[in-house]
TrEMBL record:
CDD domains per UniProt: M1_APN_like
Protein name as it appears in the record: M1 family peptidase
Biased composition (Polar residues): 1-14
Peptidase M1 membrane alanine aminopeptidase domain residues: 353-549
Amino acid sequence: MAQNIQNNPGSNHGNKFEQLGTILPTPNEQRTASGAPGVKYWQQRADYDIKCELDENTQTLKGSETITYYNNSPDPLTYIWIQLDENQHNNLKNANYQSATKMPQSATDKQVEGFELKTADNGFGFNILKITDAQGKSLKYTVNKTMMRIETPVLKSGDKFVFNIDWNYKIVDRIAKGGRGGYEYFPADGNYLFTMAQWYPRLCVYSDFQGWQNHQFTGRGEFALTFGDFKVQMTVPADHVVGSTGECQNYAQVLTPTQLSRFNTAKAAKAPVEIVTLAEAKAAETKKSTAKKTWIFHAKDVRDFAWTSSRKYIWDAMNQKMSNKDVLCMSFYGKEAYNLYSRYSTRVVAHSIKTYSDFTIPYPYPVAQSIEAANGMEYPMICFNYGRTNEDGTYSETVKNGMIGVVIHEVGHNFFPMIINSDERQWSWMDEGLNTFTQFITESSWDNKFPSKRGPAYAIVPYMQLPKDQLEPIMSNSENIVQFGPNAYAKPATGLNILRETIMGRELFDYAFKEYSRRWAFKHPTPADFFRTMEDASGEDLDWFWRGWFYSTDVCDISLDEVKYAKADFPQPAKTKTEKPMVGKPILTDDDISKQRNREDKTIKFYTDQDLEARDFYWKYARGLVQVDSSKVKTKEIRLPAEEFTSEEKAKYSNKHFYELNFSNKGGLVMPIIVEFTFKDGTKTVDRIPAQIWRLNELKTSKFYALDKEVAAIKVDPFRETADINESNNTWGAVEAAPSKFQMFKAAQAAGRGQSEGVNPMQFEVKKGK
């Protein structure tokens, strides 16, 4: 694999700092050495005119579409490839990618059913009724699992080709069977919620760097698509509410006068306005219209189209002013999510598109929407998220933060990859990783105490500590990744955060990241385009970082092996005791390097400080502003951390103030060395040594200091910003040992955040008299 390509094998230098060279594709007139599109860059286009009808009683969808395909490539084409993602659910026409299975010790009847050998067609997937050209002449086609090849007349460069496809399929129960789109049934009220995603036959990408992208759809690697304009007409039950990619062209015909008036008010509102209210949604659930309505939507310059339909929806909206336009932010959700979504969803949508715009390009579309559908998936201008409350309307802090995080993440996918249109089937990290990184920034600017799970360097350490044979390079094909979440989401996001905070600095990184977004908006970038642009726009040689973090499975374990004339002792053994977790006291969660700098940066205005409606029970709870009854929390036996060094163990070091620090690279990954000196008088200073200190010896290095004051302690990576997997070898002298995972949990307990399973402090709030 790429990580084994070495320039000077067997040597302690000349490998990790060499240029990527032939690992990257050769620049050409389509893609330049600077990472920008070339003078002869081209890409295809496909416009769609679709009519479809949803039958709620039979859970089926039928449709007809006219596609206009533009061959902007220099190549003559004799066939085109179409994606049939719905075939994923068919037991005979799916991609048939299988993983090893073993006999379970116990299983439910549903699980056993999944292991049964089935040879009869289960009836799911596309039924292709006919394919014709513009004159009605049948076209020959071949279905290969989740792909379809249509044979065409020779399409020369510059030609356009118009053809039609008629189709239908049985909609899958998404909750029971999984998948990107489908329906959810609510037995309590007898209603359905339809999320129509990857629902129509659509063009594969034909590109300069790989020809046809016709990899099978297995359910993981998502998709790559061409840009185009859409006109879509959806015929649904008359009492359904429809949310969709694009702008509705006939609200006046499908909404009541009252709803239309509310919609017009919402277009200029600074806070969410309910267009369909909770009371109206509850009333609609009790009746089922037999009539139908047709909703018409247009969308320009999008790579895909998704929609949702249900009579269960509450619908709210507000305006978000951008530098280039006003954007209508909207949310659709059932009563099951009301207390969370009515307060947060649309506000989070607005905050997300504004923050992402600041770091990439101005959001180009007229609307942005969040749909509560018990999952997480993204499409242009619309995304599906989770976040339902308990039956009493309360919710746990975990659910609240998870809901906010997933809305930010899925809305953020409008930028990566819906606009900056990378190939998700080949390089999942280019959309998931870049988006997770920007999500981390957006979460931090929502509330600097937001407990982000991905982004801070220390959060990736448990993954990096896995045995070497369980790690895989980020530059792996989506279908072949075992640790998908850490590999495609967390590790690339962490790498970008390390670049921004530790290696490049915010100013250089932010400029280069924005330049990449600008260059490749509405185009098809590859990893090489990203790597080259980040270097080209910043003036930083980062090949060593791409090589180590993206192409290898090396980890960071920088050991402070020796400080001349002194050595460190070890802590005493750990003990256990019984302790009762507490709730109700404040905790600081802004201790990573990004949050520290956010707090110091007076130009950052946190959303929860500007919109007081975004402050709920947990915002106050994190700051100790509410009281809770902790009597219901059970006691636990817990393991105490090892004790600190005793005073006797704090040796007196040499009176000389000359120090030689000797380091070794035990993990293989070269990284900057951040050294914190604590002097005998209690003062501290930090020295940031660039990673290039390893270039002449990638295994060991040293640094000599002439200091004015006597050193009491030295700590490597004091802010935990390099993802060092073994902090026990990072210290020298009378310095606190790095907190273990237990210590962090214990600290959370003491501060009131150590919630045990099922504890929901919101239910214990001590209500004060009015």
